[in-house]
Structure to design on (255 residues):
């Protein structure tokens, strides 16, 4: 079942084309990795897919409806995005920040109920931040703040997860643990997860499909086992990438 579609999607910033006639059907239960060089447009594409950025041509369909015709609250109930950079102008607590993930489901002037608070507490336990629930978010380390962002998204519980470098600032333990949780959760609940990654080997490990932005609006897309190879990676990153085989596993390293 298709949850998100792009139809002849064209995205440009100034004179730089990010996507040219992109046609992809993102299906329920799939885990997509978004690969490409810095500045190639991965973040811009993610923002466009959830209609945070409306400067594009072509169509984006959410559950077979044109996303331009949907209300922002409706989109937020279906799509959740973890941003690459988060600013905290006010010293909100960790718990209150995570609780904002329930706001798409709450009517104007309505307060969060016990079920909302339980969801927030459960998400904090998943990212192992329960002991810091009362701490101000602006007093957290980069890795702790990243875990709060992921907990907020888990609390929101959308059908579609968009993650912009979710392993940023995280140590190796949390990179593996949280990506494993998110990908398992998406697959078991027939949700969709699309995430930009810099680590090719994490993409190989967790993603069922890949979308590689290669430059000038061109891209390579398909099942991970079909498109993840030395030739495509070298073309995407404009640097020689070597494939190393260890038993039935493959690893990718720059020369």
């Amino acid at each position: 079942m298709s949850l998100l579609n792009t139809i002849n999607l064209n995205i440009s910033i100034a004179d730089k084309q990010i996507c040219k006639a992109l046609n992809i059907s993102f299906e329920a239960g799939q885990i997509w990795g978004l690969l490409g060089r810095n500045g190639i447009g991965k973040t811009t594409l993610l923002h466009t897919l959830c209609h945070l950025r409306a400067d594009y041509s072509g169509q984006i369909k959410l559950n077979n409806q044109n996303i331009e015709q949907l209300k922002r609250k409706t989109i937020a109930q279906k799509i959740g995005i973890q941003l690459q950079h988060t600013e905290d102008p006010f010293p909100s607590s960790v718990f209150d920040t995570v609780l904002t993930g329930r706001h798409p489901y709450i009517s104007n002037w309505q307060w969060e109920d016990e079920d909302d608070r339980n969801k927030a507490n459960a998400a904090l336990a998943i990212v192992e931040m329960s002991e810091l629930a009362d701490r101000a978010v602006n007093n957290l380390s980069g890795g702790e703040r990243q875990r709060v962002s992921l907990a907020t998204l888990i609390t929101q519980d959308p059908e579609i997860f968009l993650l912009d470098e979710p392993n940023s600032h995280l140590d190796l333990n949390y990179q593996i643990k949280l990506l494993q949780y998110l990908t398992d959760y998406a697959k078991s609940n027939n949700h969709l997860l699309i995430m930009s990654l810099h680590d090719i080997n994490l993409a190989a490990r967790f993603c069922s499909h890949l979308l590689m932005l290669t430059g000038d609006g061109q891209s390579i897309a398909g099942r991970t086992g079909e498109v993840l190879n030395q030739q495509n990676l070298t073309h995407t990153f404009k640097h020689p990438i070597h494939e190393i085989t260890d038993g039935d596993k493959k690893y990718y390293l720059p020369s």
Q: What stands out?
A: The radius of gyration is 18 Å. The first strand starts at residue 2 and ends at 13.
